[in-house]
Amino acid sequence: MYILGIETSCDDTAAAVIEAKGGFSKPSFSVLANASYSQVTIHKKFGGIVPNLASRAHLEKIIPTIKNTFRIAKIKPDNIDLITVTRGPGLLPSLLVGVNFARALAYRFRKPIIGVNHIEGHIYSNWLGRKRASSIRFPALILIVSGGHTELVLMKDYGKYKIIGQTLDDAAGECFDKTARLLGLGFPGGPAIAKLAEQAKRDLQIKLPRPMINTENYNFSFSGLKTAVLYSYKRKNKSAMAYEIQEAIVDVLVSKTLKAMRNFNPKSVMIAGGVAANKKLRKEMTLKIAPYKVPLFVPDFIYTTDNAAMIAAAGYFNYLKNKPNRDSWKKVEANANLRLEL
Ligand code: KG4
Ligand code: ZN
């Protein structure tokens, strides 16, 4: 079936068309179009996302983005079988643009529609790409690391999640963004720190804490790291500091994931969310998991940060379970604080 995905939860106006088949037993996806318009230049000068500017830009860009997606996919709206849209969590003014537009499309073209959880979308980014989907086994352990979320999730089956640990304060991506700001680097901070760290060497004089790395639970805390950077940063050690920030965040993420892996014995491990684009995290996780002989899945780079193909993939599994009808547009609602269904 052909699925349209729409994603406007934060600062990317994204749309995608995917072809999904195989059902729960042998799912496979091909992405026919995956378009997005990034608002980074709008928010850059404010050092963070401004919700009202974000929703205005979504309003301006949603029609061209969707038209572009249909053009690239060489498909007409009439030939779509399902519309999927992010309904939360995220910024409400941003979510409302996508949700209302998707509902109008569903009504106009008489198509079923499904509201998708953004975090569930990130999880299913691991199912996109060649031959991946059918090799994932449950239970799966997923490290979700984005700008707003840091969670360790145990996924027992499609749609069955248990959050076993989460951040008590800042998310990992937020920590990258905030410390990058202290260093005078651009927004978003993650890629800026990663780029600087790549060329840097370790400076043994700089030692940041690894918050909660030895606690018995699977929770995280990143706000202390930001404070530690504030006190130890000097202009002359900028790149070495970027290096150590990345090391500290990656150390904690990898260590907690391994701890959870040893305790829950998953059949697959995955990383998901914007921070999954971090090469150091991908490398360390691959190295440390290797001895355990559990397959590690990491999304293709194009599907790590916010995109609509992952929303369409998540929507497919929801569709198989719930089979929405043509009246479903009446029920889809945005929810800024939507939780992962347990
Ligand atoms: O998933 P995402 O695109 O949006 C949210 O749902 O939050 O994640 C965005 C986050 C930002 O905090 C950004 O700094 C971080 O992902 N990020 C990275 C990298 N690329 C994006 N963090 C570290 N290294 C990267 N290469
Ligand atoms: Zn996201």
Give the structure's gist in a few sentences.
The chain has about 350 residues and is an alpha/beta fold.
What best-fitting shape do the alpha-carbon axes yield? globular
Mean pLDDT: 95
Derived from helix and strand composition plus strand pairing, the structural class reads: alpha/beta
Query: Describe the biggest sheet?
Result: 5 strands, mixed
**Count of individual domains:** 2
Fourth-level CATH superfamily of the largest domain:
ATPase, nucleotide binding domain
Unreliable stretches: none
Q: Tally the beta strands.
A: 10
Q: What is bound: which ligands?
A: 5'-O-[(R)-(carboxyoxy)(hydroxy)phosphoryl]adenosine, zinc ion
How many individual helices? 10
Order of helices and strands: EEEHHEHEHEEEHHHHEHEH
* Straight-line N-to-C gap: 27 Å
| Rg over alpha carbons | 20 Å
* Strand order, largest beta sheet: 3-2-1-4-5
At CATH level 2, the architecture of the largest domain is 2-Layer Sandwich
CATH class of the largest domain: Alpha Beta
The percent range for helix content is 40-55%
State which percent range the strand residues make up.
Answer: 15-25%
* CATH fold node name of the largest domain: Nucleotidyltransferase, domain 5
